[in-house]
## 1
Amino acid sequence: MFAGLKVAASSCLITICCSLATVFADTQQNQPLEYKAHIALVGDSTVTDSTGWGIGFAACMADGVKFSNLARNGRSSSSYREEGLWDKALKLKPDWMLIQFGHNDQPGHPGRENEADKGYRTNMERYVDEARAARIRPVLVTPLSRRHWGSTKPNEDRIVSTLEPYVDVLKSIAVKKNVPLIDLHLRSKEVYQSLGKEGCKMISPLKNGEIDATHLNEAGSFLFGSMVAMDCRSFIPGVASHFRTSKLMELQRSHPAPSMSKPADVAALKLAGEPLARGKKRLQ
């Protein structure tokens, strides 16, 4: 959907999502006492409220929808279960549960890594089966791509992702088990390439003074969180009424796209893990 977008259009998306951070409520602290639906997130740091797309996703929810972000930093498809986090998630019995793992299943994460077509496949299939057994409707989300660019021609301006084997496994599970899938990996790659290397700095936090090419700052959270929310609205039966879109159009009209003709001010970017700005209300 985003492939081939002009830089101006992509920067407008970022402006809209940045604006959401000053408009919407702290959804974690203002849950409805009585709710018509409960939606939960399970995953790693790229899904959390502080360094992932979680808070942007929650901001798009309509009033009366309960939200639980159960994602935890550094977890893989195996360690999340081993630490007892999955059992706690099942006990909450949300109506829908979005599940995203992959980053920490890759090599280089001792005690947590899983081969894509072996341990990872087994773990993800178990999550689907056990969620359904608990009468929870699972939704698979392919892992947010890292912002790693090719080092040699012809890939210098293209995202090179090592997460593809994990993405392929999730897609095959979705077909095999007839479970909804949100392809965030593909969408994020398309957005990165539309923004370009400099534009991607606008959605990247800093870590130890360097650009963090994995996690998201508040602009990135609202950009991709709202994207996941709208895909849920479009492709998952029974979910559409739990999200609102009118505010996105209003923000697009009232906040013109910033100029991206100059390099992003890296020094002004948010540190990874810095609390996100909180607003006063949700998307209406």
## 2
Amino acid sequence: MRDSRHGYRRPFLTRLATSTALIGAASAVQAGSPVAIPANMLPQGGHFVAGSGSIGTQGFTETITQTSQRGIIDFSSFSIGKSGSVRISNGMGATLDRVTGGNLSQIMGTLTSGQLFGTDTASFVQMFDSRNAGSRTLSASGSVQDGNNGGNYAITFVTAAGTINKEALTVTAASQTRIYDGTTSSGLTPTITSGQLFGTDTASFVQMFDSRNAGSRTLTASGSVNDGNSGGNYAITFVTAAGTINKEALTVTALSDKCCVRQQGVRRDHGLDGERAGDGAQRR
């Protein structure tokens, strides 16, 4: 069937009696060269043209509830942003969703179908495939409590794309005043003033003066986090601090001493006890 750009409607989903059929169709509409869509994007312009039911939106979730055995729904566009979710409940009936617009449908968020019956309850969770920062995959798992060990439901789990952003750390050098010692070493440890470490991650930070010389100085922090990912889970901003290296105080003391002056057969000793004549000199 030709698409709507040539005057015909193209089917988006066919016979959504089971979640497996829904998931297969959702994968098919991701082909081609899609353009970026908003994270909160949901299907637009949906209305029943055959059968009966309702379409409601709350927040980033759109719920399609079909009350007839068969139904046909037309949408002007059918894309789901990464923060969006669409749930189709049609019991054991069949639904045909048709996209009448010309834009490529993209399923970046969650698209589910099927429903629980009676007092049956579900327990589902999802996990990232790694704890490390970067582009990740979310996998769902769980079961239905139906009094039959979940045997009344055929569950298909679909992964989703996710992202773990780096934890932002601000590490600030400690202000310091010390006496000149000929080095740029500080001895104090910078502190994390914004953000935090998680789990068993540890930090190794140091700080140094910008010069070994006395005067007004700048203290600069450096280092890394040991997180099992070469520090890649943290975005660190280092903040300098003002410091001072005071001059080393030196006291220089002259030593007591004496010397001799010999002149024309007369020796004169100069010392703390005055002048003394000798070696043939006559005293008067």
